[in-house]
Specification:
Elements (H helix, E strand, L loop, with lengths): L10 E2 L9 E2 L7 E2 L2 E2 H5 L1 E4 H6 L20 H19 L3 E5 H4 L6 H21 L3 E6 L18 H21 L3 E5 L4 E2 L7 H22 L4 E5 L8 E2 L4 H10 L6 E6 H6 L4 H10 L3 E5 L18 H13 L8 E3 L10 H27 L2 H9 L6 H7 L5 H9 L12 H17 L1
Length: 441
């Protein structure tokens, strides 16, 4: 059965194309640093938003028209699976991602849910044998059901902690069976609403214990995928323990996990934390912990996680600047954790939204690569910090001075003069030039 019969395989047609079902800037065969764009960007489709999203919001019912909506239960799970691999093939994407309860319905019984997973996972495995699309990462939904109201690994209820461990154990087994290249931990509700009823130290210690158990079990079964933490500051929990990358690094180092985990960074989570997307990427990169990306964007007029498809070229350019500086994403990728708007309800919109996101990151990659090749920012930054390459600045960097010597040096300075303007406005104008030139070809 074909679920998207009116759509042919999406191909690159160039910037002059008027075909809404063609790539204008994403050319999978174009080379970047010796790799094709497909190999470098490693695009992935999120199973949840693309195939299980219904278009509901806090004020309205489902709006999405999908060709498998007439099914239910495991029949629906199988229809979605069939549709998903047709979508992957027509979009020609190399990867996809899922939560456990995206691919099967959750039952009241954990054992029954595991049986559902045991029925669907072999079907996925069969598709993977003939599909170019592989599993970038999987994870466990530990935020939707009422049992998770106070968290999973940080729950005050030890039974919930055990339940979460069983789900992650199963998830790691599934990841190994399906060849997942990563496993993601999104905190969901790992946080608190008020300190009046919270033992923060115990909760954080338990979270550290949980992650160590996951590391141990992965080693036991031979799962060698990269472990990833996905920071998010709030929503659903008012204060989540994985607030941002810097908070996550402090946690990992405190509990001796910084050599076992990297970060899966989402653009919309960055902005909810009061940062830019590129800030979070930069922090992870300079500490060697940039692992993967959830590619989306938020709405600056709305204070929640809107998960829009990425179309902001400034954001994609500056994000790819960090990713290129990182040497790529290794086993990670660019996963479109993004959903079509509630009013974009038909299946054609799924294709056009992914095309828009892939084109936006492809164009951003071209501009970022040119900025790096021309050393536009590197040369400016080198000059701005040049005082640390000679004299007292060099002594500071090389650890050859102390407060005594620095005080003696400072007392001889008649007047401190700022020598290198930051030229923020000029740099933004230069970035504009590079973006405009990219459109000109």
């Amino acid at each position: 059965m074909s679920y998207f019969g009116n759509i042919n395989k999406v191909k690159y047609e160039g910037p002059d194309s008027k075909n809404p079902f063609a790539f204008k800037y994403y050319n999978p065969e174009e080379k970047i640093n010796g790799q094709t764009m497909e190999e470098y960007l490693r695009f992935a489709v999120s199973y949840w938003h693309t195939f299980t999203g219904e278009g509901t919001d806090p004020f309205g019912q489902a709006t999405m028209i999908r060709p498998y909506n007439n099914f239910s239960g495991m029949d629906l799970a199988k229809a979605r699976l069939e549709a998903s691999f047709e979508f992957f093939e027509k979009m020609d994407v190399p990867f996809f991602c899922f939560h456990d309860y995206d691919i099967v319905p959750e039952s009241d019984s954990l054992a029954e849910t595991f049986n559902n997973l045991d029925e669907i996972v072999p079907l996925i495995k069969d598709y993977l044998k003939t599909s170019k699309t592989k599993l970038l990462w999987n994870t466990a939904n530990m935020f939707s059901h009422p049992r998770w109201l106070s968290g999973a690994a940080t729950s005050p209820n030890a039974d919930v902690f055990a339940y979460a461990a069983a789900k992650v154990k199963k998830g790691l087994e599934i990841g190994k069976e399906l060849g997942a290249q990563n496993y993601v931990f999104w905190g969901g509700r790992e946080g608190y609403e008020t300190l009046l009823n919270t033992d923060m130290k115990l909760e954080l210690d338990n979270l550290g214990r949980f992650f160590h158990m996951a590391v141990d079990y992965a080693k036991e079964i031979g799962f060698d995928g990269q472990f990833l933490i996905e920071p998010k500051p709030k929503e659903p929990t008012k204060h989540q323990y994985d607030f941002d990358v810097a908070t996550g690094i402090a946690f990992l180092k405190t509990y001796g996990l910084d050599d076992k985990f990297k970060f899966n960074i989402e653009a919309n989570h960055a902005t909810l934390a009061g940062h830019t997307f590129e800030h979070e990427l930069r922090v992870a990169r300079i500490y060697g912990l940039l692992g993967s990306v959830d590619a989306n964007q938020g709405d600056p007029l709305l204070g929640w996680d809107t998960d829009e498809f990425p179309t902001d070229l400034y954001s994609t350019t500056l994000a790819m600047y960090e990713i290129l500086k990182n040497g790529g994403l290794g086993s990670g990728g660019l996963n479109f954790d993004a959903k079509v708007r509630r009013g974009s309800f038909d299946t054609d919109d799924l294709f056009m939204a992914h095309i828009a996101g892939m084109d936006s990151f492809a164009l951003g990659t071209r501009v970022a690569q040119k900025l790096i090749e021309d050393r536009v920012l590197d040369d400016f930054i080198d000059e701005r910090y040049s005082s640390y390459t000679t004299g007292i600045g060099r002594d500071i960097v090389e650890g050859k001075t102390d407060f005594h010597k620095l005080s003696e040096y400072a007392l001889k300075i008649d007047k401190v003069e700022n020598k290198n303007s930051g030229r923020q406005e000029n740099l933004k104008a230069i970035l504009n030039q590079y973006l405009i030139n990219a459109f000109r070809g």
